[in-house]
Amino acid sequence: MVLVAQAAFAQEIKLDSTEQKASYIIGRNIAGEVANPNVPFDIDALVAGFRDGLTGADSKLTDEQAQAAITQFQALAQAKMQKMAEEDAAKGQEFLAENAKKEGVKTTKSGLEYKIEKAGTGATPKLTDTVVCHYEGKLIDGTVFDSSYKRGEPAEFPVNRVIAGWTEALQLMKVGAKWKLYIPSDLAYGPQGNRSIPPNSVLIFDIELLGIK
């Protein structure tokens, strides 16, 4: 969760009773639902609004003021996200262009780039198969956004139910192989991104194909 403005009234709270603990974790969960690194909430004002809403206190803004503020805020957030998406797209294209020149990196017709770190000797998955893999996913700045290694167990999923870059790569691999994938955004999450992946992000994956089920 990324909230730009820091709370001026931050203080220690007691988390002794079940009610206190439950209230705290519910608050965290709600924050997790609304938090967005591209939306600079003012934490003091956010908490004040949350408290007023819970206690039934009158709003400090009229309906007209509230609507105007939300409309303007959404426009600013959208403009910021659009600018960041365009910058990320340019960075991704530059990264892939340079990466394709590196020794051992191959590029498919779709634009998927990969490097074979360990050749497999087993069977190759079909589109309708379910595979067992260990993997770690990173952004081009090195930020890890997902890792089966950290969870301590491999993942299982249908070949045809993952991002396009994975679906393509898995059908080229053999069981026992370990590849590094460099996936263009249009073969990943595209301009939409998701909560942990910014729009237009190139993704880097280390994948071990452990088995086919």
TrEMBL record:
<dbReference type="Pfam" id="PF00254">
    <property type="entry name" value="FKBP_C"/>
</dbReference>
<dbReference type="Pfam" id="PF01346">
    <property type="entry name" value="FKBP_N"/>
</dbReference>
<keyword id="KW-0413">Isomerase</keyword>
<dbReference type="InterPro" id="IPR001179">
    <property type="entry name" value="PPIase_FKBP_dom"/>
</dbReference>
<dbReference type="GO" id="GO:0006457">
    <property type="term" value="P:protein folding"/>
</dbReference>
<feature type="domain" description="PPIase FKBP-type">
    <location>
        <begin position="128"/>
        <end position="213"/>
    </location>
</feature>
<dbReference type="InterPro" id="IPR000774">
    <property type="entry name" value="PPIase_FKBP_N"/>
</dbReference>
<protein>
    <recommendedName>
        <fullName>Peptidyl-prolyl cis-trans isomerase</fullName>
        <ecNumber>5.2.1.8</ecNumber>
    </recommendedName>
</protein>
<dbReference type="InterPro" id="IPR036944">
    <property type="entry name" value="PPIase_FKBP_N_sf"/>
</dbReference>
<dbReference type="InterPro" id="IPR046357">
    <property type="entry name" value="PPIase_dom_sf"/>
</dbReference>
<dbReference type="GO" id="GO:0003755">
    <property type="term" value="F:peptidyl-prolyl cis-trans isomerase activity"/>
</dbReference>
<keyword id="KW-0697">Rotamase</keyword>
<comment type="similarity">
    <text>Belongs to the FKBP-type PPIase family.</text>
</comment>
<keyword id="KW-0732">Signal</keyword>
